[in-house]
Amino acid sequence: MLRMLTTELLESLINQGYRFCLSRTTTILGEDADVCITLLPVKHTPLLRNLPKKFDTFFKINEEPRIMATGIDETIILVDLSEINLMVEVS
Questions:
Q1: Fewer CB atoms near the end CB (10 Å): N or C, the chain?
Q2: Residues 1 and 85: beta-carbon distance below 8 Å
Q3: What pLDDT, on the 0 to 100 scale, is given for residue 87?
Q4: How far apart are CA 91 and CA 4, in angstroms?
């Protein structure tokens, strides 16, 4: 399940112990955006040389993703929650 990144979602992930986000950047053809960034929250420090093939890089969850949550022009920021069981209902 993919959700738009919000500050509320970010806080919920941080409260559940997620410390990093794997990141994948793709170009898209859309009316409102040219770029899509998909984040996958993880609890342990990833190794850049051993990232899963579909990811480009990773960020500390309280740094770049916090800035992304406030919005970036021409960019859609999604969070992949398919492997995460959130304790708080995300709207």
A1: C
A2: no
A3: 52
A4: 10
- What tokens were used for 57? 């890089």
- Pull the structure tokens for residue 33: 């955006």
Q: How far is CA 67 from CA 44, 61, 70, in A?
A: 21, 10, 6
Q: Reduced to 3 states, what is the DSSP secondary structure of residue 20?
A: strand
- Which amino acid is it at 13? L
CA dist list (Å): 61 to 26, 48, 87 = 20, 15, 18
Residue with tokens 């409260």: 15
Q: Tell me the average pLDDT across 65-70.
A: 95
pLDDT per position as a tens digit, 15-57: 999 999 999 999 998 888 899 999 999 999 998 888 888 999 9
Q: Which value, in Å, is the radius of gyration of the alpha carbons in the chain?
A: 13
Residue 25 near residue 37, CB atoms below 8 Å: yes
